Amino acid sequence: MKKYKDNFFCPLPWNSIEADPLRQMRPCCDFRDRIKAQTVEEYFQSEQLLQVQKQILNNEIPNGCKRCPEREKFGNSKRTLSLQRQGISCIEDTVTDKILALDIKPTNKCNMSCLSCSPLDSSLVFLQAKNNKDHMDHYIEVYETYKKQKLNNGWDLQFINSLIDRLDSNATVHITGGEPSIAINCLQFLKKLVDRNLTSITIKMHSNFQHHSQEFTDLLAKFDNLIIRASIDAVGNTAEFIRPGTVWQTVESNILSFTKQFPCSKFSINPAMSILNIWFLKDLENWCTDRKYYLDVENVLLWPEYFKINIRENFKQKLLDEIEYSNIKSMIEKDYDEFLGDQCKTNLEKNDKARSVEYKHHLPKLWRMLNVEEKN
User: Fold this and answer.
1) pLDDT tens profile 94-129
2) What order do you get walking across the sheet with 167-175 strand by strand?
3) Which of 118, 236, 256, 290 could form a disulfide with 142 if both were Cys (CB 3.0 to 4.6 A apart)?
4) Residues in a beta bridge with 202
5) What is the pTM of this model?
6) How far apart are CA 319 and CA 365, in angstroms?
């Protein structure tokens, strides 16, 4: 895999593409700039993409690569780790016209309105922001940007086919959302892959496991290689608070059913580590150990910034004693940011008011840090 300065890694963008509900395309889901193209063909021929390719070949970090260099400060980037696990490597100095890694998010349709999510990624968050202009800041800011877009309509079959036309038979397709299991376009995409006998590709998918239909699991059963990540931030009532829409008993049952049906899949529990759930990581770890699920904590939340791991000094040591993961420890050890702490408190209070809840009861340690003991 090609190596950058400061131990920064990245897949070469001519064999990797990410596309979202707005039919915008970029080299990967963490790339901050959009490639100006309306079709897949325009994307591959664009001057912007050629410039990114040139920067990579010169061992430079492209302008749109912001998040992975930041993650490198706290361990490997999630993209490097996930691509290594899938056996995908960069093809140095070689250009291929086939897609080897495809990230797709054809719709934002979702059955949850997670606290750290946005209207771009969840139709329920979109509605929350639309109906309450006093909701959390990141809800409103993203809603104002995309409020005129039809994010839950999904792609037409022509665009789906144009993506599949470019797919290498050994590609890895990463499907996100929204929630893939309830998105019609995701099901259409899987059906098209089956129809074209592209069942040897690797399907990588994030799911909240709140709803898995028989049609959905029957389609997944057609593929030889599955990497399934359960987006679970905590267990029990805490999970239901951080990811509203969760019915923990249903999620737990669906995960058990899935792992029994697909024993050969690469299955893991994949929390988005944030200031919201770091206090409960040990509980999640114990839950995974008891059920022999692999816990993958590589996904460290960086946005919204006020939900990043940001720990006051007198709360650090207890967490450091409980947590063994080096990337999480490095986040805990950072100096506390008072401004982000104040923003976190303000936005959790906005969420309390909007949803008629009290984070004090669900996240008591965080509440104490932001309130009672903030000057100790």
Assistant:
1) 445 678 888 888 889 999 999 999 999 999 999 999
2) 25-26, 16-19, 99-104, 167-175, 202-207, 225-230, 266-269, 294-295
3) 118
4) 172, 225
5) 0.84
6) 11
